[in-house]
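User: Continuing from earlier, I have the next pair ready.

Assistant: Great, send them over.

User: Here they are, in order.

Assistant: Folding the first of the pair now:
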Amino acid sequence: MAQQRSVKLSKIVDEFSLEILNKGVDYDDALLTIVDVNRPGLQFAGFFEYFDPRRLQVEGKAEHTYLEMLPPQERKKSYSALFSYEIPALVLSRAMEPSAECMEAAREHGRTLLRTEETTVIFTSQMIDALNRYLAPCITRHGVLMEIYGEGVLIMGDSGVGKSETAIELVKRGHRLIADDAVEISRISNTLTGTAPELIRHYIELRGIGVVDVRRLFGMSAVKVESQIDLVINLEQWKEGFAYDRLGLDEQSISILGVQLPTLTIPVQPGRNLAVIIEVATMNNRHKKMGYNAALELTNQLSQHMDRQNGRGAL
C-alpha cells in the first residue's frame, strides 16, 4: 500500500525563499498534505462551502485589490473569517504589502503569513509541481534500480539470485546505479520514479565482500539520485522443464501504483552473462517503444515465406 506523505511548511518556505511576515503558532509543525493550492477570493467574499483548509492559500493581485476596496472593518472581518480555519499559511504574491487588518488578524488567530516576489500564476504552478513531487504516492520494493542506456530498469528477484552482482557488472560497463536492496517508487502523473532511501544511497551489498560505496569506488558518473522506471526485469533460478518465452511475442506487464510497466522474466543459470542480457533487453524495450518489434517482424517474415512456399507447391 502507498504511504500517506506530507511535507513540512518550513521546508517549502526554505525551498521557495518565502519571506515570513508572521510566524503562526503551528509554523514549526505545520504540514502540507494535499497536492493543491487555493486562491481564497470566494472565501474573502464570505463563501466557505467546499472550502478545504488543508490547502496552502495564495492571495493574488485580484484578491488584494478587492480587499483594498473594502472598509477597514469589513477587510478585517474577511481576513478573520479565513484565519479562523486552521490553514497552513497565506502567501501574498508579487511582494505585495499586507494591510494592517491582515497582519492584525494573522496575529490574533496565530496563522502564518508569507510573501513571495513571484506572480501568482508562476508561484502557484511551481508550488503545485513541488507538491506533486513531495506528496506523490510512494511504495518501497525490494530490488535494484539501474539506468541503462538512458532507461530506468528495476531488477527484482528472490534474495541471493544475483541482483547486486549483476548491478556491479552493469556499473563496470558504464551504466549507473540508483538504488540497491530497497527502491522507493513514487507515482507522479502517470510516471513512476525510483530512488534510494537516503541512508543507503550509493551503497551496494555484495555477498563475500560486504558493503561497498559505488560512488567512491567508481566515481560520480556511476551513480544517479533518481530515475524514471521504464522496464521491470525479474530474475529467477532456472527451472528445468519450464517453457520460457523464446520469441518475445507474449508481452507481459506488471502494475505498480496503478501504472502498467513492461516486464520480463530472465532465468538465472551458471554461464549466463546477466549484465549483457539485461543490456539487450533494455535496448529491445526501447525499440518496442519506438514501434519496432523484432519478434513480430520475424513472425511476419516466416509467414510470408510459408505463403510463398505454399503458393509454389500449389503450382
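And the other member of the pair:
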Amino acid sequence: MRADVNSLKSAVSGNIPGSVLFACDYNAVRSPIAEGIMKKRYGTAAYVQSAGVRQGLEIDGFAIAVCQEIGVELSRHRSRTMDEMEEWGDDISAFELVVALSPAAQRKALEFTAYFSLAVEYWPVLDPTGMGELRAQKLEFYRQTRDQIAGKIAERFGEP
C-alpha cells in the first residue's frame, strides 16, 4: 500500500509545479474556488495560494455554498491582494506558476514577469457575480464557474 501511495504522489507531482498562485479580481469567488479545489485534489503535491488584484470584498457566500457541495471548505478563507501577500512576507516571484482567472489578474501577474522568472497562464473563467436573480439561478451560475475551474485544473494538472 505504501508503494502505491508514493507512486501516486510522484505521478501527480510530476504534472504539478511546486507552487501555484491563483489570481482574480477580488479573491472572493474564482481564485478561492480554484485554491480550494486544487488543495482538495492534490493535497501537499504543491504549495497553493490565491489572491486578488483589488481589495474590498470578502469570500462570497455563494462560492462557499457551491464548494461545500463537492466537499471543499471555503468558509475560513480570508480575501487578500497580491500586494498584501507581498507585504505579509509571501514572495510572488517564488511561485512557479501564476494562473490568472481574470484579465486584471493576468495584467498584474505579467508585471511580475518583467523582473522575475515565473510562468503565467490565463484561464478565462465565467465571473458569476451579478448573474441570475433568484437564489437558485445564482447558485447555478456559481456551479458553472466551479465546474469550469475544476475541469481546467484536471486538464492542466491531470487527475489525482
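Worth noting for the second one:
Strands lie at 19-24, 47-52, 97-100, 119-122. The first strand starts at residue 19 and ends at 24.
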